[in-house]
Amino acid sequence: RKAVVKITTGSQALDELLGGGIETLQITEAFGEFRSGKTQLAHTLCVSTQLPTSMKGGNGKVAYIDTEGTFRPDRIVPIAERFGMDPGAVLDNVMMLLSHSILLVCMQRWLKNLSDYWWVFLELTIPNKLNLYFFQKLAQMLSRLTKIAEEFNVAVYMTNQVIADPAGGVFISDPKKPAGGHVLAHAATVRLMFRKGKGEQRVCKVFDAPNLPESEAIFQITGGGIAD
Ligand code: GTP
Description:
Blueprint: E1 6-7, H1 12-17, E2 22-23, E3 26-32, H2 38-48, E4 61-66, H3 73-82, H4 87-92, E5 94-98, H5 104-114, E6 119-126, H6 132-152, E7 155-161, H7 181-187, E8 190-196, E9 201-207, E10 216-222, E11 225-227
Parallel strand pairs: 3-7, 3-8, 4-5, 4-6, 6-7
Antiparallel strand pairs: 1-2, 8-9, 9-10, 10-11
Helix pairs in contact: 2-3, 5-6
């Protein structure tokens, strides 16, 4: 059995909640309302994944699957600087794939090529509305990602927006019903719910994780990424 690598989130409180950090060999799903910090954690992981293991990193590269166009290379610069890394070198090790739901087939082909490298982290945003075709493709892709995580000791991190109520415009924050439905919930090993706190404070709660208690951690979104 491969040794699990734990990659820091940038927040000690969040790392402790996760038993050390975002783990390889499994899928971690973050869901929660708009602006709760899911994408900011993805950006922070783009950097911390590349840190040496002695600095709670993964000593690896990143494949970032962006289905919503939310990746911001300029955000990587201050985060890399905070961790004492060269931003240019960090960006060179982030392989981007821009994909819309219709292109999931291409994504599957791309994932096959991925296995030739040592990638430690993937970010995938699951859109809110799923038609049957997309739903099937998503299920196939998640099964592929699970295999990649196990075979290549990769950490998979994916984000998922909570369904918005079209009538009231409020979020249905029922953690049992994230967007993407049970296909996604099934594939994820660790499920995290994010919500807004005061100001730049955010709260992360663990759901359905086999080895973690269902407790919470408070973290902040800063210029340098996720922090305490
Ligand atoms: P979506 O908006 O649905 O993608 O939700 P999300 O949970 O992915 O939100 P995201 O992670 O993008 O968090 C947005 C929040 O991050 C904003 O409300 C800001 O508080 C913070 N943020 C974004 N960019 C910056 C930045 O450049 N500097 C700082 N200090 N905070 C930022």
